[in-house]
Amino acid sequence: MEKYLDAQPSLFTRNDLFTKSAVLVLAVVVALMGTGCSFQASGGSKSTVDKAPISSKKNLPTLKIGVLPARNPQDQEQMIKAFDAYLEKSLGRQVDFQVAKSYSEAVDWLVQEKVDIGYLGPSTYLRALDRGAKVEPLVAPIDRHTGQPWYRACIIVRVDSPIKTLKDLKGKRVAFVDKSSTSGYLMPLASLKKQGIEPGRDFARVLFAGNHSKSMAALEDGTVDAAAANISSYLKRQQSGKLTAKNSRIIWESAPIPQAPIVVSKKLPIELIKQLKQAFINTPDGIEDITGTESAGYTLVSPSDYAPIQQLRKDLNLISLPAQ
């Protein structure tokens, strides 16, 4: 795991496009070298990009955007409406959002070039690259609760549950999000393996719910004894009044994970990519990130930011990397 000490993520702040986010570097290193530990946010800010002129031409090609099914369809559609209108106005062209039925379908769209932009998780982005998608990360949301472009995975139980630690999950029913979900499966899986726990062998039932909302809903209705999600989704869920701080609690949380990237096709015109950067970075307050993250805007990201997640996938035998 010493390789992570050399990782050089390159997230930018809004005030200085060319300043690396040292906080994120350390956070990602910790996230992949051990279990969750406390991490102090230092108050992030959005990135800046050079302003690009917005084309006034008519009949421009429609921009197609694929989105992971991070939340229930009705909730996600409501979030999309406001951002769709904002993006069309900013770009001067029609924008069509499509919510995938699964993480795999979102990757398929990018590989088959059916969409121009994709909202992906860190691991899902890397899986898309593995399959030959010609994409690059553009921006990622800044978590409103941390003030930084990272987030944490967590495992939640009912407040009266006898489950206190990861080891107590043996023999229990556990819901995950998707096998490609970084926070909803891969990060919890890595920590479980360090405890000598294999979900397929040691759990009474393993449920892959499909999205974070459904994973937590399975805990609410008693289908499972514990549910994996991310803390941002958990806090968002509490607003519904079903899963609250009074009737549920977190038994485990990861160290910080680099925030989910929004990726773009490398075939898009350079001018349009600049316009997209400008539009995302200048997103008005009050417009929610459409994956459900309670965001405080967006920051620019680059492929190197996700190198530690690629190493995590190798450690979990999900890929085979060439020797360095």
UniProtKB/TrEMBL annotation:
<dbReference type="InterPro" id="IPR005770">
    <property type="entry name" value="PhnD"/>
</dbReference>
<feature type="transmembrane region" description="Helical">
    <location>
        <begin position="21"/>
        <end position="41"/>
    </location>
</feature>
<dbReference type="Pfam" id="PF12974">
    <property type="entry name" value="Phosphonate-bd"/>
</dbReference>
<comment type="similarity">
    <text>Belongs to the phosphate/phosphite/phosphonate binding protein family.</text>
</comment>
<keyword id="KW-0472">Membrane</keyword>
<dbReference type="GO" id="GO:0043190">
    <property type="term" value="C:ATP-binding cassette (ABC) transporter complex"/>
</dbReference>
<keyword id="KW-0732">Signal</keyword>
<keyword id="KW-0812">Transmembrane</keyword>
<keyword id="KW-1133">Transmembrane helix</keyword>
<protein>
    <submittedName>
        <fullName>Phosphate/phosphite/phosphonate ABC transporters, periplasmic binding protein</fullName>
    </submittedName>
</protein>
<dbReference type="GO" id="GO:0055085">
    <property type="term" value="P:transmembrane transport"/>
</dbReference>
